Amino acid sequence: MHSTTPVTNLQTRHNRATRLLHAGLALAIVTQLLTSLQMHGPDDVQAGDILFQVHRYSGLAATVLAFGLWVTILVRSRGTDLGALIPWFSGRRLAALGRDIKVHAEAGLKLRLPEHDPQAALPSAIHGLGLLLISAMAASGAIYFVQVALGLHSAEPDGMIAMTVHLALANLVWAYLIAHAGLALLHHLLQSMRLSTMWSFAR
Ligand code: HEM
Ligand code: HEM
Questions:
Q1: What is the CA(146)–ligand 1 centre distance, in A?
Q2: Residue 141 Cα, ligand 1 centroid: separation in angstroms?
Q3: Domain annotation covers residue 87
Q4: Whose CA is nearest to atom 39 of ligand 1?
Q5: Structural contact between residues 47 and 155, judged by C-beta atoms closer than 8 angstroms
Q6: Are residues 176 and 131 in contact, defined by beta-carbon separation less than 8 angstroms?
Q7: What is the extent of the structural domain holding 153?
Q8: How far apart are CA 94 and CA 71, in angstroms?
Q9: I want to staple 116 with a disulfide (CB 3.0 to 4.6 A). Which of 6, 28, 54, 193 is the partner?
Q10: Ligand 2 mean position to 68 CA, how many Å?
Q11: Which residues approach ligand 2 with their CB closer than 6 A?
Q12: Local structure of residue 134 (DSSP, 8 states)
């Protein structure tokens, strides 16, 4: 028998655009966090060192990728519903979230990881918060970039509203990345989910 269906053993509910944008965004964020550890940012006198330049331009790339991921989430026909990522405005979604928090809390008290359920409300709500957090970092960085480029402000971040937001949220990005990537890895090792559900470039 002849079949035209491509043979693939990849089982994923995430479409290819989601997986590609997620990978690009994750790499950009890791670059942002690593550069932020050692870079010397700009001040009134100088424009910042080479690590800051990497931070700047990979940050602008992250801004484009985050925007692309939001557009993909809005238009895709396969993947997590927007309402699952942002459940905060629906009574039905909030009720499901409450029930799922209970399931996670009960499992947590027994030091167990709840079964990986792609429809679960809590993980999706946290993924949505993570993406909002990254979007706020990207937007505040981009606003700073534009303000400096237009000459509306010196490159010194002190005293700028956008940078106050940027610096205040920075540690949450570490927390999100460590918790999110750590749980993904744990699920993979416990064989309750495969990393390739997100980390694959197959069609
Ligand atoms: C998603 C994208 C981004 C993430 C996750 C991110 C993350 C960070 C982190 C973790 C810090 C260090 C905060 C601290 O020291 O407490 C930082 C500082 C900074 N970022 Fe970003 N950033 C992003 C995008 C951008 C963009 C697009 C720009 C625009 C040029 C930018 C400009 C800056 C500046 C000026 C600082 C302060 C540098 C200094 O300490 O003088 N960031 N960012
Ligand atoms: C800060 C960087 C990251 C951000 C902003 C981020 C964001 C997201 C978001 C929004 C989703 C949900 C996508 C959807 O359902 O449509 C997701 C899923 C996922 N992420 Fe990340 N992610 C990041 C880094 C990582 C890293 C480093 C890993 C790997 C270790 C990872 C592994 C996964 C996996 C496996 C899923 C799928 C979970 C499932 O289908 O149940 N992510 N991520």
A1: 14
A2: 6
A3: no
A4: 41
A5: yes
A6: no
A7: 16-39+48-80+126-197
A8: 24
A9: 193
A10: 15
A11: 14, 18, 22, 25-26, 29, 79-80, 118, 123, 127, 130-131, 134, 176-177, 180-181, 184-185, 193, 195, 197-198
A12: H
Ligand nearest to the CA of 76: 2
Retrieve residue 65's tokens.
């990728």
What kind and span of H or E run contains 93?
helix 91-109
Amino acid, single-letter form, for residue 22: H
Residue 60 domain-assigned? yes
Domain presence at residue 115: no
Q: How far does the centroid of ligand 1 lie from the alpha carbon of residue 18, in Å?
A: 25
CA-to-CA distance for 195 and 189, rounded, in angstroms? 9
Indicate the number of domains in the chain.
1
